[in-house]
Amino acid sequence: MAVWCGFLRGVNLGKRQMKMAELKACLETAGLGAVKTFLASGNVRFEAEGNEADVRHRIEAAMEKSFAFPVRAVVRSADALAAMVAAAPFAGLDPDADLTRHVLLSDRPFPESCALEGRPKDTEIVRMDDRELYLATYRQANGRYTEHVEEVLKPLYAAVGKDWLDTMRNWNTIEKILQ
Fold first, then answer.
1. First to last CA, the chain
2. Tens of pLDDT along 58-104?
3. pTM of the predicted model, to two decimals?
4. What value does the mean pLDDT take over residues 36-54?
5. Cβ 71 vs Cβ 65: under 8 Å
6. pLDDT grade for 114, boundaries at 50, 70 and 90
7. Which of 69, 95, 125, 159 has the largest count of CB atoms under 10 Å?
8. Looking at per-residue confidence, does 157 or 16 come out higher?
9. 67 neighbors 113 (Cβ within 8 angstroms)
């Protein structure tokens, strides 16, 4: 069985509450193996047969049935995540800079025509792969790190439309889910 990682979109916000123990039980009931959750923001690692689309559909259907609201998920194989980490997308950053590292995971390739402009020493586009966008966000005067991410990503969301699925995670989460 392959190892997969699911990153749930929009859970534990408002009325869309989901305890991670309940998520684990839900996915185990759906026949997934070795289910482990990470943090309360909807990160889960599990074993399952099938391709990415099959696995995604399976977990989304199980969660909707169990929690009575639709939950969308971006899914990657553990091998794909390991390759992302091995590629060291943040290696060129100043190790002493006061910043956080994030990755925007998409369910499909980014449009080639979409040009994003970062804001130096604020929200920088570090790298853009087929379905991953790596960002460095620097601490601002107000103490926040991700203050201008939405502004930088606005051209992307204007280009992709409402059916687009993505979710952003702190790079530390990506590294931790592989352990």
1. 18
2. 999 999 999 988 999 999 999 999 999 999 999 999 999 999 999 99
3. 0.94
4. 93
5. no
6. confident
7. 125
8. 157
9. no
Bridge-partner residues for 2, per DSSP? 48
**Angle, CA 166 vertex, CA 18 and CA 64 arms, to 5°:** 35
- Report DSSP letters for 38-72, one per residue: ETTTTEEEEEE-S-HHHHHHHHHHHHHHHHSS--E
Asked if pLDDT for residue 41 goes beyond 90, the answer is no
- DSSP string of the chain, one letter each residue: -EEEEEEEES-SBTTB---HHHHHHHHHHTT-EEEEEETTTTEEEEEE-S-HHHHHHHHHHHHHHHHSS--EEEEEEHHHHHHHHHT-TTTTS-TTS-EEEEEEEESSPPPTT-----BTTTEEEEEE-SSEEEEEEEPPTTS-SSTTHHHHHHHHHHHH-TT--EEEEEHHHHHHHT-
Q: Are 65 and 132 in contact (CB under 8 A)?
A: no
pLDDT at 85: 97
Asked if 27 contacts 44 with a C-beta cutoff of 8 angstroms, the reply is yes
Cα–Cα distance for residue pair 114/26, rounded to 1 Å: 38
Tokens for 161, please give them. Answer: 């439309």
Which domains does the chain possess? 2-80 (3.30.70.1280), 87-177 (3.30.70)
